[in-house]
Amino acid sequence: MATTPGWVSLLLAGALAYGCSTGTTHRFEDDRWRFADSVSVEHAITDTSQRYRLDLSLSVTDAYRYRNLYIKFRVEAPGGDATTSLPVFLLSDSAGSWRARRSWAGTYSFSTTLNPSAQFTQPGTYRFWLAQYMREDTLAGVHAVGLKLTPVR
Q1: Cα 37 from chain centroid?
Q2: Are 39 and 145 a contacting pair, CB within 8 Å?
Q3: Which of the two ends of the chain, N or C, has the fewest CB atoms closer than 10 A to its terminal CB?
Q4: Phi/psi at 124 (nearest 5 deg)?
């Protein structure tokens, strides 16, 4: 009986796990996130017993001048009900040192789990919406923002 090499099994498992996730990454033109530039993704929920991990990612450049970034996060259910939260990314310490390493592309990437085990009570299409929630209309230095839903096993 032939056996599959371990690295092939690992590669297939990774591909399957990745394929089960739903998400979006939005890159901002000129690395500027305007207040009006909300980002949204829709996801169809068929199994209301399935739980999901909701992860938020952010990428900034040296042009970003604040220690944190507030984001307005809204989930709209198929029936019209909505919940809103205001997660914050802590990007640098009090001395101004970034809490992430600089990538080869010149950006600093951050991620946080918004909910490790979200459960949706109604079947149908949910809309997840992100907007910057700072005191400026346009934030310079914001390269990208993303949201990912991953089924929890």
Answers
A1: 15
A2: yes
A3: N
A4: 135, -170
Distance CA 42, CA 24 (A): 9
In Å, the largest CA–CA distance within the chain is 65
- Which residue carries 């009900």 as its tokens? 81
Token pair 């346009």: residue: 138
Residues 6+ apart with CB under 8 A from 103: 109
For the CA atoms of 25, 43, 76, 125, what is the dihedral angle to 10 degrees? 150
Are 108 and 66 within 8 A, CB to CB? Answer: no
Tens-of-pLDDT digits for all 153 residues of the chain? Answer: 333 343 333 332 333 333 457 788 999 989 999 999 999 889 999 999 999 999 999 999 999 999 999 999 999 999 899 999 999 989 988 888 888 888 888 899 999 999 999 999 999 999 999 999 999 999 999 999 999 999 998
In sequence order, the β-bridge partners of residue 22 are 149
